[in-house]
Inverse folding.
C-alpha cells in the first residue's frame, strides 16, 4: 500500500500478487475494496494493481472539481509509480469509462481491456438518478438506509430475498472506515456528468465488454450499441447479475477475464 503524488491529488494505491500486471479501476462511490471478491481468484495468476479514484477511499484531491481527463491521468500515474510500461486494464462502471479513455490516449500502455457494466458514456437517466441519490445522501440521518436504497440499482432481485443479509450489507457499507462522504459523492457525480461519448473507431485495443442481464443502470442492449464501433470487441452477458456483476457472480467474471487475457498476452 502506498500513496502517489499526482497532479493536484494524493492517490492511494496497492499492488498484490505476481504475474501479468493488471490495473483495476473502480466505479463511482467505490474504492480498492470494490475488487475484494476477485482477489482470491487472481492473486496466484496476476499482479493486481488498484487505486482509489479522486473522491473515494483514501485518495485526497486538492481540488473540488475534476474531469475524466484528470482521472485518466491518475491511472497513468499509478502505472508510472509501479514502473509498469504496459498492463491489461479492468474497469467497472465509471472506472471502465476511465479505462476506455486511457486505452485511447495511451494505447502503448495497454495490452487488453475489460469493460464491466459500462457504456461509452453515462446515460442522462443514470446521471440524474445519481444526482438524486446524492441529494438524499446529504439529508440521510441513517446512512445504512441510504445504502439499502442504493442496492436496488446495484444488485439482482435474488439479493433481496434474504432481508437480514440486505440489512447486514447496508450496515457494513455505512460502517466502512473509508466510506465516501456526501461531498465527495457530489464531486464524483459532477465529474461523471462531464463524460461525453468518444470516437471509438481509432481504438484497436482488444476489448471485452461484460454486462449483467439484470443491470438497470447500464442496460445490456444499450451498452452493445454504444461500444460496437470498437474494432476488436467481444461481448459477454452474465445471467443472474445486475450492475455489481463481480460481487454477484465473481467466479464467472474471473473466468471470463482470465480467459480473455490468456488470448491476448502482453
Amino acid at each position: 500500500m502506498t500513496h502517489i503524488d499526482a497532479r493536484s491529488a494524493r492517490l492511494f494505491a496497492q499492488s498484490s500478487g505476481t504475474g501479468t500486471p493488471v490495473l483495476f479501476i473502480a466505479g463511482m462511490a467505490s474504492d480498492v475494496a470494490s475488487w475484494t471478491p476477485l482477489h482470491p481468484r487472481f492473486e496466484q495468476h496476476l499482479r493486481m494493481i488498484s487505486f482509489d479514484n479522486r473522491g473515494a477511499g483514501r485518495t485526497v484531491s486538492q481540488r473540488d472539481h475534476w474531469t475524466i481527463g484528470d482521472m485518466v491521468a491518475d491511472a497513468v500515474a499509478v502505472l508510472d509509480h509501479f514502473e509498469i510500461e504496459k498492463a491489461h486494464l479492468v474497469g467497472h462502471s465509471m472506472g471502465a469509462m476511465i479505462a476506455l479513455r486511457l486505452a485511447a490516449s495511451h494505447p502503448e500502455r495497454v495490452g487488453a481491456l475489460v469493460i464491466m457494466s459500462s457504456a461509452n458514456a453515462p446515460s442522462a437517466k443514470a446521471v440524474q438518478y445519481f444526482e438524486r441519490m446524492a441529494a438524499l445522501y446529504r439529508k440521510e440521518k441513517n446512512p445504512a438506509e441510504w445504502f439499502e436504497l442504493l442496492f436496488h440499482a446495484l444488485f439482482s432481485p435474488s439479493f433481496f430475498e434474504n432481508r437480514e443479509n440486505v440489512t447486514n450489507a447496508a450496515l457494513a457499507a455505512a460502517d466502512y472506515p473509508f466510506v465516501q462522504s456526501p461531498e465527495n459523492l457530489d464531486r464524483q457525480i459532477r465529474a461523471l456528468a462531464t463524460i461525453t461519448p468518444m470516437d471509438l473507431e481509432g481504438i484497436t485495443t482488444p476489448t471485452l465488454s461484460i454486462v449483467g442481464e439484470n443491470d438497470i443502470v447500464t442496460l445490456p442492449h444499450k451498452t452493445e450499441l454504444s461500444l460496437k464501433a470498437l474494432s476488436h470487441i467481444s461481448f459477454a452477458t452474465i445471467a443472474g447479475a445486475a450492475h455489481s456483476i463481480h460481487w454477484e457472480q465473481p467466479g464467472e467474471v474471473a473466468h471470463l477475464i482470465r480467459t480473455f487475457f490468456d488470448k491476448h498476452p502482453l
Summary: The radius of gyration is 17 Å. The first helix runs from residue 39 to 42.
